[in-house]
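> tool_call: predict_assembly(chains=two)
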Amino acid sequence: MNARIHWVGYKTIVRKEITRILRIWGQTIVPPAITMSLYFIIFGELIGRRIGQMDGFSYMEYIVPGLVIMSVITNSYGNMVSSFFGAKFGKHIEELLISPLPNWIILAGYVTGAVTRGLLVGAVVLLVSLLFTHLPVVNVLVSLSVLLLTAVVFALAGMVNAIFAQKFDDIAIIPTFVLAPLTYLGGVFYSIDLLPEFWQKVSVFNPILYMVNGFRFGILGVSDVGLTQTYSVILIAAALLFGGCIWLLHKGVGMRT
Amino acid sequence: MYALEVNNLKKTYRNGVQALKGVSLNVREGDFFALLGPNGAGKSTLIGIVSSLVNSSSGETLVFGASVQKQRSLAMSYIGLVPQEINFNQFEKPFEIVVNQAGYYGIPRATAIERAEKYLRQLHLWDKAFTQSRNLSGGMKRRLMIARAMVNEPRLLILDEPTAGVDIEIRRSMWEFIEGINESGTTVILTTHYLEEAEQLCRNIAIIDQGRIVENTDIKSLLATLDIETFVLDTRESLERAPVVDGMEIRLRDERTLEASLPKQKSLNTLFAALDDQGVHVLSMRNKANRLEELFLGMVEKNAERAAREAVE
């Protein structure tokens, strides 16, 4: 009985989230595709030609995995934070809070919605990149699993932000001052081998480095970090964030007074 | 079995405001129950705790025997809530809102669609079912929240000021709908500021003030305690001073309007006869205030005096 209620409830949240993503496709799908096309033209084509090869690949080929991961991160995070905070702000989160659904189903539904948007945008960016270059895709399983887990991690991180946010400014602070610097310094545009030794050591504390390199390994077969380290960092981050979100939802932080 | 049992419920907010100071209350299954109180009395906090939107500081809340604090999912599966504030996504369509709400209660989509149509039709919203809900009027938005609360066919329907700001025609149609729901076996708890609404619809009543229940009884017994009733009389003649009638207090409101306060044991015939003797002819008459309103105001006043005395002591 409970399993059926949970399944129907989960499907309802996911359907609602995906409907929302598709309804506002002009805000959710198109802008990242345009932004990433500009990255490919400016960094890949124009500047990339002068840079030459990196780890045995053209600069364009080298940056594609990082840019795809960057899109997945910003979109899964952005979807969660805007959708959940919007529901809190408009008070329609109460529709879920008064329902019999347990917190983990509510979390799973919202995470699935955010992951869907992250992967959808990632797929669009990947397709756009094929207009500019060819990608070998060395290991499909690694590519897909890193992409999926990265989307899950940042969807959960977005939930934490949305739970604590009290005004719209609060949902812009983390993406601007934390996510963007970590992403740009996470090896999207360069190999950390190019950095001085001190900054190489600093870089290993950036979790995004492992995601970018894990996906780059799946696509190109090259990486600055080991695959075991990549999966360890991603899985630990996912577990900690999931536990944190469940605890915050159980306590009703920011929602139940 | 009680639809709702509240035992010694207390709530202190983080800012130190003690919204509930040990509220105990029982609502029988099938009852139409009014929860009244002035603004800030603790009604919304109590409803918030019952619907799990507010965490209690201590005490117990049982919905059909299921503890809101310990068996939240089971307790919530019995409840439908119509909140005071509009709380649906105004960018969604009424049909989507109602169907999604059913989904949150585990109702399969095919059944949810049938029920959404049924309740939107019953609440005269079907022709607006596929328009954006932000374009609905205030009354329509309130009816949409009722349709949404009914889609899981709850055993306990809680309505927090459902008719606030709604015109009288729509209010009456909402009353009819809610009465029908109650007649079909659903327990209804209503908070309202329209006391004639409570008097007309509800069988039992609790009055809450300053976080305490100050009265909890059936409406008939409560009204029977009313000693004096006040009427407003429109006269044919223009009057310079109020007529004097033995055992009644009559005041001149303006030259053609009188206010007469009668003890319960005095009949209206006595009043009319006395006025007739003095050459005053009454053209029309109405209650100055709703009877329940008079009692309510009296109780709230008494409670405020008691609280002030306690504060001094």
